[in-house]
Amino acid sequence: MDTNTIIGIVVVVVIALLLILGFAWMDKSRKKAMRGSQDAAKARADARLAAEQEAARKAAEQPVHSPATEPVESSAPAHAPPTETAESTAVAQRNEPVTDESNEPSERPQYEKPEGRRGRLQKLREKLSKSSNPFGKALFSILSQDNLTEADWEDVEDTLLLADVGAEASEQLVDRLHTDARITGESDPSKVKEALRSELLNMVGTKTDRRLNADKPDAHRPSVIIMVGVNGTGKTTTAGKLARLFVAQGKSVMLGAADTFRAAAADQLETWGAKVGVPVVRSDKEGADPASVAFEASKRAKEEDVDVLIIDTAGRLQNKANLMDELGKIRRVTEKNLPVDEVLLVLDATTGQNGMAQAKVFAQAIGLTGVVLSKLDGSAKGGIVISVQRELDVPVKLVGVGEGPDDLAPFEPEAFVDGILD
């Protein structure tokens, strides 16, 4: 056996011994650590047991120190202040949750309850009858005279013209009254009034379907209404009032603020909607594309399956052509999501014939299904009801008779004529 072999064997034996010693040391250290851990766990257990025994001992001793075992003389004065403090603390603690609970309902939105149809029609009659100068009263005052002269008939025609009935309609009504035996044959006021009422109802139209398309059995859902009209006619206000009218009927409503050219229009709509729980779709950016707002509103109305969507539009752009193009675009993009059932023109009744030219432009540009006469609060311009229907060939469907939130009523010829005659 050579020297190298012997050296190799020695090295292997040494390494083996070192490994054996290393394992032995590690096993000893592990056992020592385990004993230490067991001792620590035992110490913690003993401490916890001692604490529990001490707590049990104190609990057992507690009745001995109860105030009930102490003399009455010493317990009353000694414990009176703490008792009063404890009671006040308890009351304060009890009051805190009660106060919070009482505040909870106030945080919930409290919506207004709009007035129903019957109350609105009654309000229409009252507002018209209380007017200082409704043209119906002026006509009755003239026609109830004895032996009407040509001058009297001229006064009748002048009264109709001043009331914005229109030249052609005024002439036609005078001819009918002139040949009515109830007026020319005698001067009985009741018969004169009956004749005048009958002729006015014929001129206004009693057989016209004045229902909003959203109220018809075959209406789409959602039923889309686009409000048009020049600025200053009360268009946005009318849109808000119309939403209240539908809410009073139990319908779900959404408003679209597509009048992005007037800074306060969207805020105004939100104020109206917040009072009756109606959501408003608007753009956060002033001057945004009105058609994009209309598109988003129709999309959301379809997704949420509301009954009615009312879209407010701008009433003034750089020129007439731009305004009409914009209205046409609003209708087209809306109809990508939903069909448009109604286009309502809001017309200021106090402008009379001056507003007719504007009305004709809207009728040609977008097509109208009905007219809303705002500010028809018994002024002498009430005759525009007759002329606007004859000129536009669409019915007056709604009338505004005041500044109150529910002063928008469905137009009924009987209520209107009775109001201007009473």
TrEMBL record:
EC number(s) given by UniProt: 3.6.5.4
Entry keywords, A to Z: Cell cycle, Cell division, Cell membrane, Cytoplasm, GTP-binding, Hydrolase, Membrane, Nucleotide-binding, Receptor, Transmembrane, Transmembrane helix
Membrane topology according to the record: Peripheral membrane protein
Cellular localization per UniProt: Cell membrane; Cytoplasm
GO molecular function: GTP binding; GTPase activity; signal recognition particle binding
TM stretches of this protein: 6-26
InterPro entries: AAA+_ATPase, P-loop_NTPase, Signal_recog_particl_SRP54_hlx, SR_rcpt_FtsY, SRP/SRP_N, SRP54_GTPase_dom, SRP54_N_sf
A Pfam family it matches: SRP54_N
Positions bound to GTP: 229-236, 312-316, 374-377
Subunit structure and binding partners: Part of the signal recognition particle protein translocation system, which is composed of SRP and FtsY.
Family classification: Belongs to the GTP-binding SRP family. FtsY subfamily.
Protein name per Swiss-Prot or TrEMBL: Signal recognition particle receptor FtsY
Taxonomic classification: Bacteria, Bacillati, Actinomycetota, Actinomycetes, Bifidobacteriales
